Amino acid sequence: MTLFRRLSTVSVALLFTTVPAAGDDDASTSPRRRALVIGIDGLTGPALQRHAFGAGANGALRALMEQGVFTRCDHAGDPRCARAHDGPEAGAGFRYETASGWVSVVTGMNATGHGVRGNDVDEQMVFVETSQQHPTFFRQLRERGFRTAAGGVANFLTSREGESIVSGIVDFECGVENGALLVAWNDVQSCNLEWRRADDLESERRDDNLATWVIQRIDDGQADLVMGVFDEVDAAGHSFGFEDTRRYPEAIAQVDALVRRVLDHVRARVSDHDETWLVMLTSDHGGHDVLFGMLGVHDTTVPADRAVPFVVATYGASESLSALKEPVRHMDVHPTIVTWFGTDPGKVDGQVQGIRGPHPKAHPD
Ligand SMILES: [Zn+2]
Q1: Does residue 273 lie in a domain region?
Q2: Has residue 11 got a pLDDT over 60?
Q3: Domain residues for 242?
Q4: How many Å lie between the centroid of ligand 1 and the Cα of residue 238?
Q5: Taking the complete model, does pTM exceed 0.85, yes or no?
Q6: Contact predicate 341/312, CB 8 Å
Q7: What is the DSSP string of 231-278?
Q8: What integer is the mean pLDDT of 251-280?
Q9: Measured in angstroms, how far is the CA atom of residue 100 from the centroid of ligand 1?
Q10: CATH number, residue 193
Q11: For the chain, does the N or the C end have fewer beta carbons within 10 angstroms?
Q12: pLDDT tens digits for 135-152?
């Protein structure tokens, strides 16, 4: 090594020690980037805030929020709340349902971009075509060599409901043949997922099973992006009302306990395996009560059906997160995740939140 090269090595080292943000951008020494998307079906923005910051609250969801940046949402009409896609504002028939919500999250597109109006099979079928131009982050990342995993039930992933099969929006990206989805409900791989797990909508252990599976995906170190959509909060909202003050919050507390298990494993990967994690949380839609609070639904009622939670946090990253940019919408998850992996999200309706992009190419080894 020449003297000149020795000197330049020293000066580069000095630069990196005095500018912390640059140090971790050195591709040869930076920790491996991984990401987790926590989807909580039917979790309203105000309900998460009450759960996380109500009297005596000390949960894992609050810890996640305080680890990162999040939207406050005192009530559904609070202008600070994160929002779902445009819904009925996008045109006749667009509703706040599971398929139309999650497809916005995973594509970064607003309602008119993906064209999925709601949960009906015909409505989800539209995504066979629109996904060509607006692919999911699963497919985009997979095509660039990253490994993707997702678990859940319909209408996120095609799943069982007792003896019936109910379709999920992510699987429509893989196409149909003679009007039937190419992905079977129990397939463990698909065109966009290297690890895929769908459960039975009628199983009372579906969220618990999902947490266990997500933890396996975290611990085995293979998947770069892991997404899990918990279902039982939405079910409680339908049965007892999204404004219910006992059983709907109890369902949120149960997911909180599962999220605690999951995040313990994320932190362990950071400390034991030199990884850095981006963790995002949102929901597909909010909800409101009908029949004097006896039942809950979500359809076209704003603002209640549109107010969703939104959290972005990092573990093991040297850079602090920047403040969220308004408007914050659940479709911002897509460009944020894709940018985290050093990849161009393309033209999407959502915007990058929290992280300071663009990041250097972060291809897996
Ligand atoms: Zn629902």
Answers
A1: yes
A2: no
A3: 31-82+144-153+186-340
A4: 6
A5: yes
A6: no
A7: -HHHHHHHHH-TT-SSHHHHHHHHHHHHHHHHHHHHHHHHHHH-EEEE
A8: 97
A9: 12
A10: 3.40.720.10
A11: C
A12: 999 999 999 999 999 999
Query: How many other CB atoms sit within 10 Å of the CB of residue 73?
Result: 27
Q: How far is the CA of 287 from the centre of ligand 1 (A)?
A: 8
Residue 107 domain flag: no
Whether 2 is covered by a domain: the verdict is no
**By C-alpha distance, which of 210, 276, 230 is closest to 61?**
230
- Whether residue 171 lies inside any domain: the answer is no
> Taking Cα atoms as reference points, which of 179, 195, 178 lies closest to residue 187?
195
**239-250 confidence digits (pLDDT tens):** 999 999 999 999
| 10 Cα–ligand 1 center, Å | 58
Per-residue pLDDT reduced to its tens digit, 334-364: 999 999 999 999 999 999 999 986 655 555 5
**232: CA distance to ligand 1 center in Å?**
10
Please give the Cα distance from 255 to 268 (Å, whole number): 20
In the chain, the number of structural domains is 1
Q: How far is the CA of 171 from the centre of ligand 1 (A)?
A: 19
Which pLDDT belongs to residue 29?
A: 64
Centroid of ligand 1 to alpha carbon of 286 (angstroms) = 9
Structure-model confidence comparison of residues 80 and 1, the more confident one: 80
Report the separation in Å between the CA atom of 297 and the middle of ligand 1, taken as the mean of its atom positions.
7
| pLDDT tens track for 276-327 | 999 999 999 999 999 988 899 999 999 999 999 999 999 999 899 999 999 9
Tokens of 86: 């445009």
Q: Would you list the DSSP string of 67-127?
A: HSEE---SSTT-TTSEE---GGGGSTT----HHHHHHHHHH---HHHH---SSSHHHHHHH
CA 235–ligand 1 middle distance (angstroms): 6
Question: How confident is the prediction for the chain on average, in pLDDT?
Answer: 91
